[in-house]
Amino acid sequence: MARRKKVYEGKAKILFEGPEPGTLIQYFKDDISTATVAPISTATEGKGVLNNRLSEFFMTGLNAIGVPTHFIRRLNMREQLVRMAEIVPLEVVVRNFAASGLTERLGIPEGTPLPRPIVEYYYKDDNLGTPLVSEEHIIAFNWANQQDLDDIVALALRVNDFLSGVMLGVGVRLMDFRLEVGRIWEGDFMRLIVADEISPDSMLLWDLRQTERADGSMPDPAPLQDVYTELARRLGVLPSNVTHATKPSLIN
């Protein structure tokens, strides 16, 4: 790792120059990352390995249904080859059920189904606490234009449909998730793609497979425990030598 040129280091990943022009190597660290809340300065052994496998699984699935992503291929246990992209300075959050920040801001009981998926934007600046912003802010400050926003919403909702279906198939409810979008150019043509990662670091997941109570009744869904390991196990991508437990991240 030390011999390669580091391009960027964030809370949970490091980007190095790739072997070919227009590519990067994305290395997954074990540090815990949260999406739109203050970062947690802890690490969980093996989390980076699992996030690498899970992000590969989701990105490959999206590519297969025609949703463009930066993912090219996984290189090893902790690294994957990705396309270089100009990251739009927004965290795009899609909410399907009321939880965390939405419950706090609007008083909607946690777990309430929303009438339709809600797309929110947060400005990517840790010093400012990644604040919630409107489309007016985004356009006024030239972070993206109206066509970009229309395309981002369409992209985010397609990802939401895919992830919700995959999660439901393994007994998990996708409460909300965070997405990052990048711009790539093909000649004079620019298009938007899914970038960064898709992993439990950026999702709030509730378990629908609850243990039956002694009286025979079923408890309500609750946050998925041991989220990295359990999700990888249910999706069939769990490496045999990696196990640990940690709580899911919350999107504020």
Please describe what this structure looks like.
- This protein has a domain at 87-207: 2-Layer Sandwich (D-amino Acid Aminotransferase, Chain A, domain 1).
- It is 25% helix and 30% strand.
- α1 packs across α5 (227-235).
- The longest helix has 24 residues, at 146-169.
- The model is unreliable at 35-41 and 245-252 (pLDDT under 50).
- 35% of the residues are buried.
- The strands form 2 sheets. Strands 6, 7, 8, 9, 10, 11, 12 and 13 form an 8-stranded antiparallel sheet that branches. A 5-stranded antiparallel sheet has the order 1-2-3-5-4, covered by helices on one side.
- β8 (113-123) and β9 (132-133) form a beta hairpin.
- It has helices at residues 47-64, 100-106, 135-140, 146-169, 227-235; strands spanning 6-9, 13-17, 23-28, 71-74, 79-83, 86-87, 90-97, 113-123, 132-133, 172-186, 189-195, 203-207, 222-223.
- It is α+β, with helices and mostly antiparallel strands.
- It contains 5 helices and 13 strands.
- The radius of gyration is 18 Å and the shape is globular.
Layout of secondary structure:
Layout: E1 6-9, E2 13-17, E3 23-28, H1 47-64, E4 71-74, E5 79-83, E6 86-87, E7 90-97, H2 100-106, E8 113-123, E9 132-133, H3 135-140, H4 146-169, E10 172-186, E11 189-195, E12 203-207, E13 222-223, H5 227-235
Antiparallel strand pairs: 1-2, 2-3, 3-5, 4-5, 6-10, 7-8, 7-10, 8-9, 10-11, 10-12, 12-13
